[in-house]
Here is the input.
Amino acid sequence: MPAPHNPFKAALKRGEVQLGCWLGLADPYIAEISAGAGFDWVVVDGEHAPNDLRSTVAQLQVIAARDCHAVVRPPIGETYMIKQYLDAGAQTLLIPMVESAAQTQDLVDAVTYPPHGVRGVGSALARASDFAAIPDYLQTAREQICLLVQVENRKGLAALDDILKVEGIDGVFIGPADLAADMGFAGNTGATEVKDEILASIQKIVSAGKAAGILTLDEDLQLQCCDLGATFIATEIDVTLFARNMRMAANEGQKRLRKT
Here is the structure.
């Protein structure tokens, strides 16, 4: 019996647009609701959200019961951390702040078992192998792992051509917020210069035959990226969605019920 099929990786390979949502509230209830809302994928974020390995596992467990794919973003692309998330059952990883082909190759090695990589062999203890119920997990796991690298500053963009030549990555995600800050437009991802870099990078990624992705709440930019061939696009964030709707609800209640 092989490792579980990764429908997200297969959809990207077919060029099908996958719509996603960022999860930063670090809560299984929120993850379960979000995974059942109709998104194709959700990101359990460990970089900018208060998630650790255990909270990530709890969210992976509830997402698994829904028709939605879990993408995990570790805080950093360290080999030991990648090993832990893969053993915990994550099949798709989004690695932040990738800046070179050498770093990209290290990530490919980290998700690959020896003799071709350096992923530690401990699948008998792992949720990923259904706790050793998948006898040929070691032989089949790699083909179902989807590795996405996040390019989000000028150094990464300068190395994008070389990054795209590394075999073993499935897609490249452009990070607008960090890119805008690095370009001198902190907090202004809508700056023309930033958008131009994003769209040029999306074109380059697609032309290289890799899946291109982005997180943006800018609906026009979502459409532009989709028109250029981006295939994994996150359109919402649970934190901002909850916060703005709670503020709106409180404001409307104040207007309706406070007469002073």
